[in-house]
Give the backbone structure.
Amino acid sequence: MFSNLGKTIHKYRLIRNLSQETLGKQLGYRNGQFVSNIENGKSSLPNSKIVLCSSVLEIDYNILVTAVLRDTHENIINECTKELNEYVIRKQRVPNFLDYI
């Protein structure tokens, strides 16, 4: 999920009174669907579009970079937690053969 980036873009898009379609077209997309996907956390903004997007939104690009980094950090933590939980469940289900010796 990319909720930090989505919330950030949504916030500044509304402050600048831009529609999703307008922002999408200024970023080089055909319409606002990609912006909608970003704002809903379904997609991330390609790194190559961060500077352009920050320029269109009239914000420092570090604001978007920070949001992307927060999302990345949360995604890594979530994935590691999921993997750890699955590992623990597997360990509980599979008896250790040494227990029977």
Residues 61-93 form the longest helix (33 residues). The chain is about 65% helix and 0% strand. The chain has one domain: 3-96.
